[in-house]
Amino acid sequence: MKLVIFNGSPRYKKSNSKILIEQFLIGYTRFCSETVPIHYLAKRNRKKEEKELFQNADTILVIFPLYTDSMPGIVKEFFENVIDTDIKTPKKIGFIVQSGFPEAIHSIYVERYLEKFAKRIKSDYLGTIIKGGVEGIQIMPKSMTKKLFRSFEILGEHFAKNEAFSPEINEILRKPFKMSPARIFLFKQLSKTGLTNFYWNSNLKKNNAFRNRFDKPFSKENFSTQ
Amino acid sequence: MNIVILNGDLKHEKSNFSKYLEELTKEFQLNHRVQVFPLKEMNLHYCTGCWSCWWKTPGRCAINDDAEEIFKSIINADFFIFASPLIAGFTSSELKKITDRLIVLLHPYIEIRNEEFHHRKRYENYPDFGLVLEKETDTDKEDLEIVSDIYDRFAINFHCKKKFIKYIDHHKIEDIVYETCNI
Fold first, then answer.
1. How many pairs of residues across A and B have Cβ atoms under 8 Å apart?
2. Is the ipTM of this complex over 0.90?
3. A3-173 belongs to which homologous superfamily?
């Protein structure tokens, strides 16, 4: 199979999507020696190359972070660019949607769109992997990301062997679908201590912006006095 | 009322869609203040996910372009309209471009709503919105449901309500004006 991966993260090479794909490819290359081109949609001046890669691939994977419960603008632009009837479409297409929020429920709406998009371009739909809780993986200790990375490795292995996503891994990755009542209770207790905002607060402080965190620069009162 | 229309039409020339919006704007102007943003013609960039707006300059985007004008208008509007022809089964990339950047109007802190994690408000009030769309030749019921559901999700995220979806081949301009002002 000629596989091409499109990374739809606006963060380009600093993206969490890139890290997940690296893990996927560790597994993939164990069983498939063919090099896999990775195209970054954030490089918006490479539209010609993008189209060529799309047209010459047998199988395509598109990975992106969830933006306002759907695909980021650059991914939508990509979809618009390849929808033309004169463009040869890949035999198969699959998607990986990762989000900052831990629950899969945020991503299931765009999943329906993606399935319909595959139908629209007449490619076989390989499914959508959904993984929440990805924001912060770059600063987490190894022990915290070990399981996640291992899952993406196995996903890659399975993909190389079967040209499909592993249904078992997909099921594991998309948990939790929603927060359990126990976890909601715990979150509410923790939020009283401010611990739930630790990630945001530490970054706000690092940037010397903590005291401005509630700024409302565009409220009427603010810009009428400016 | 203060009404903002985000026109996500990708065509440069005067399309049917933009003409429809022009008529709609005129109708609104009889009794209201309307601001129309022709997104394609503006200097707007895609969100880069840098999160400056959340942890470097809270509430302000790091990109210096025309988006700030839109942020100001939307957060102070009584109502806003996402207007776009459907392309590849969804609203245009121009409209999605500005939609992604509206996170500048939210706060990074997380709260639980509908038993889900969501970001909390930065401002007191967020305006409700409607959608004005143009169908593609192959648009079917499923497409319309998908678009509607994704914008319902946007409404949850944006602490507001989606009031209507109207199609330019199907709905009269007067209907949109009526629903904007009365519901």
1. 153
2. yes
3. Flavodoxin domain (3.40.50.360)
